[in-house]
Amino acid sequence: MTARPxxxxxxxxxxxxxxxxxxYAHAVDRLANIDEICACFTADAVFDLSGIGLANVVGxxxxxxxxxPVFANMAHHAHYLSNFAITAHDGETASVRAYVTGxxxxxxxxxxxxxxxxYFDVRRTxxxxxxxxxxxxxxxxxxxxxxxxx
Amino acid sequence: MTARPxxxxxxxxxxxxxxxxxxYAHAVDRLANIDEICACFTADAVFDLSGIGLANVVGxxxxxxxxxPVFANMAHHAHYLSNFAITAHDGETASVRAYVTGxxxxxxxxxxxxxxxxYFDVRRTxxxxxxxxxxxxxxxxxxxxxxxxx
Amino acid sequence: MTARPxxxxxxxxxxxxxxxxxxYAHAVDRLANIDEICACFTADAVFDLSGIGLANVVGxxxxxxxxxPVFANMAHHAHYLSNFAITAHDGETASVRAYVTGxxxxxxxxxxxxxxxxYFDVRRTxxxxxxxxxxxxxxxxxxxxxxxxx
Lengths: 150, 150, 150
Hints:
The structure is a homotrimer of 150-residue chains. Helices cover 27% and strands 46% of the residues of chain A.
């Protein structure tokens, strides 16, 4: 999250990193295949939602463990991304901040809306950019309940 | 909607296709001139909102027929686009998915909010990229009523 | 706000101008340092929120005067930007329109949500693109109160 001039980030990288976050959100919203989510992360990735009171897990097994009950509990998801900002870039790694409006509706009818920020650290791999760390925080107070994501 | 690597899409095309969707949304939101909407579509375009329970029409006459009562009924529109993803590209045609939060307020005071996805097939023309097909689906259950768009 | 073809705007400029708006929104949302907001504007910038019933001020002193009570009153801010459109560009100056969903929660517990459009005129400076004029209007009727921003 160190502040380096974003001009250091080639446009191709910037857009590919945005695409990674969009792919992550779409995999979360499809509620169909956790492998699609894992594919956005390196094998050793830290997945840290402690900033919003949820899990802090490591690696694909940890990510799978987090999303298994989420996918079982949720009927609908929508994660809108905007305000992308590359905050660090050294050619092989980068950090990006984005705003998210995350909406969920549980099979039990209870809903949640999160207004916050995503922070991704990413690394260039042979399969494109992958996240090595993911964290988020709130911009606005939570509306509804995150019970279905616990 | 076939999945080809988006790296195949030059940045210029990708941004021009995003601009087309933004121009469409802005024309819808201005509620001023249906020609501005038609200008986003080829003459033979399929405009298919059956995925959210609305019209499935063809061509500029069909699009005009759909929007004439909408423009008469609606007092306010706002269509926020995000999460753009090029899902196919062969140089002359492409497919793009985007997220939309679409809000409307009728002259009768009744409102609607749609959280969904846009799917555009687009074609390069002498006048820039134009949509040949437009469809959408829901991410979240509808809030309010679409009566003013029928 | 004159309509010139956006193809005249190099991709580097377009993205840098988007970054300026994102930086402005993030400075507003951090509620931490008004200097970060002023840094987005030229010394002679016109900051005009009369379109939504708020201030019309000039220069860094005017901007500081506007945000001093806002920062004192607000507990949370979130300004989501999307639908960027370069509407003019001549190499040294440009105009951009963006959609905004602006949310605020006062320390008094009263909230506000604004659905509108940002209009920025920007100028290339030795320190990158800076705003020379900023205005906005509503897309949807206001929800809540702007009292905490007065």
